[in-house]
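Entry for the shared binder. Reason: the reviewer on the internal report wants the predicted structure included alongside the sequence.
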Amino acid sequence: MLDTTDNAAPVGRREQNKIDTRRAIADAAFDLALSVGPGSFTVDQIAGRAGVSRRTFFNYFHSAEDALTVRTDGFLELALEVFGRMPQDEPLFDSIIRAFTETTRMEGLSQHGELFRMADTNPELLRAQLHSWERAEARIVEGLRRRLGADASELYLTALVGSVLSCTKAAMRDWAALTPHSAGDPGQELEGRILAALTMLRDGFSHRTIGVAPASRA
């Protein structure tokens, strides 16, 4: 696991309180989604479980679905931070795969997978997830532009990021279809599938089959 302590700027008490409140609301929304299903609870219920007022909820999120998808944004921020520390002379896809692996060691994928599965039965959550993916695409393009410089064309960047995200979503769909809710550690199963898909992309899809195994936590 990467140690980011030395590189992280100190966070003031007020800012840390905001971070903690945002996380508490997101956790409350996710717990309710697991227990009663997405779309079956209200903002007031989320606020009550998080111990905040309705007004405070809307200071952070626009809707219950927005509170559910915030994890995608947080995961991406962490992944881009890790990617930015990769050696400039390392092959690009090796950096992408390594950044993803390091990020999942710090923040597992179990909740992301469950939310992806829930969206299949909830149009509002699906819409919120699509917006989250769109935000992710724009931010990853910017991260790659910083790495690659002015020589990388817009077509190259958008095609590359679109391919990476398409492979990620294909892996998540495969996981959702084949991994039961009762799996021992669905986060690791999902990570293994995403790594397999990104590896296929890196290798030009030269192999029609590839082994999928839970990623190592060593």
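Summary line for the report: The mean pLDDT is 86.
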